[in-house]
Design brief:
- The protein is an alpha/beta fold.
- Helix content is about 40%, strand content about 15%.
- The protein has a 7-stranded mixed sheet, sandwiched between helices.
- α8 links the parallel β7 and β8.
- α6 crosses α7 and α8 crosses α9.
- The chain is elongated and about 65 Å long.
- Bound molecules: 6-O-phosphono-beta-D-fructofuranose.
- The site of 6-O-phosphono-beta-D-fructofuranose has 11 residues, from loops.
- 6-O-phosphono-beta-D-fructofuranose binds next to loops.
């Protein structure tokens, strides 16, 4: 049995832990493993390399992906799926493990329908994949963002400023929500909830009277009606706008300063929250879903994604996992809002 692994979409801490889990478990079954370079691009171009136990020594604590990644979408290319199938055969693969978020796994679900034996592993710092409680990458990115917020807090307190932190997360507010709750933010703006500058600034004024500073966390994907926002014409191969171009953190900071008259500063941490050593949680989750993926292959359970439900690793159909984006629920938002005091 020869299995291929690919990592697609944005990199995140935990990818290498997952690949290590796959390679080590595959060894128990005597499976050969090869790594497809740079996500679906590698399967279109037939670009691969062997992955042995020696290759995965010492990678559990490393960020990024040793295979490289891309946002290549085979479904957007003429004959893309055919080429993927051809290369799957040329490489002598019996099964494929696709490690990715909604985009990569949506391609996996489609390719499964075309008869390729495939299983999925969920990853994304955005934590917006359905059918799994958490994706690896999220815990590390929020840990980094909380650290950033606490650093901003020092400056805010020292200079009596309102500090705004813009975080990633695309169309889901999980990163902003968890960063704000865990870092003690005074307000959080997420894509799922309408932005009410008046309500936020009244509250920030009240907070400022007490602490002489305030902290706000903004998700890059928030919807703002007054479009001082740059055009979002540029899209990736999966049709997503490039959110960092919008500069919402600065827009929010300007709004706050104009309305409250308190000095306000913004920091955008961007890709810093996607790199570096994975947390314990992400190492464990990556390892566990990696091992599970090989077990699914051994049991002939294709078209499924390994997932975390409670503290158990289970499997769900890929089609269910990619059916809809997992966004912040009202309960979570109520919890966060109840802490703005
Ligand atoms: O999906 C992960 C993510 O980090 C999003 O939060 C962000 O909007 C996007 O990727 C950035 O993509 P890129 O690294 O291609 O600029």
């Amino acid at each position: 049995m020869k299995i291929g692994i690919l990592t697609g979409g944005g990199d995140c801490p935990g990818l290498n832990a997952a690949m290590r889990g796959i390679v080590l478990k595959a060894a128990d079954y005597g499976y050969e493993v090869i790594g497809i370079q740079e996500g679906w691009k590698g399967l279109i171009e037939g670009d691969s390399r062997p992955l042995t136990i020696a290759d995965v020594d010492e990678i559990i604590g490393k960020g990024g992906t040793i295979l490289g990644t891309s946002r290549t979408n085979p479904l957007k290319r003429e004959d893309g799926v055919e080429i993927v199938k051809e290369n799957f055969e040329k490489l002598g693969l019996d099964a494929l493990v696709a490690i990715g978020g909604n985009d990569t796994l949506a391609v996996a679900a489609e390719i499964d329908k075309q008869g390729i034996k495939i299983v999925g592993i969920p990853k994304t710092m955005d934590n917006d994949l359905s059918c799994t409680d958490y994706t690896f990458g999220f815990d590390t990115s929020v840990t980094i963002a909380v650290d950033a917020l606490e650093r901003l807090q020092d400056t805010g307190r020292s200079h009596r400023r309102i500090m705004v932190l813009e975080v990633m997360g695309r169309d889901a507010g999980w990163v902003a929500l968890f960063t704000g709750i865990a870092g003690g933010a005074d307000w959080i703006l997420i894509p799922e909830e309408p932005v009410d500058f008046e309500e936020m600034c009244q509250h920030l004024n009240q907070v400022y009277k007490r602490k002489h500073y305030a902290l706000v966390v903004v998700s890059e994907g928030i919807k703002i009606e007054k479009e001082t926002i740059k055009s979002l014409d540029e899209r990736d191969e999966f049709g997503h706008p490039i959110h960092r171009e919008r500069g919402v953190g600065q827009i929010v900071a300007n709004e706050i300063e104009n309305r409250t008259k308190h000095p306000t500063r913004v920091a955008v941490i961007g890709h810093i929250q996607r790199g570096g050593t994975p947390t314990l949680f992400d190492r464990m989750l990556g390892t566990r879903v990696g091992v599970k993926a090989v077990e699914l292959i051994a049991n002939g359970e294709f078209g499924k994604m390994a997932c975390l439900i409670g503290n158990e690793i289970k499997a769900v159909p890929l089609t269910d996992a990619v059916a809809e984006l997992k966004t912040v629920t009202k309960d979570w938002w109520q919890l966060a809002k109840g802490l703005f005091k």
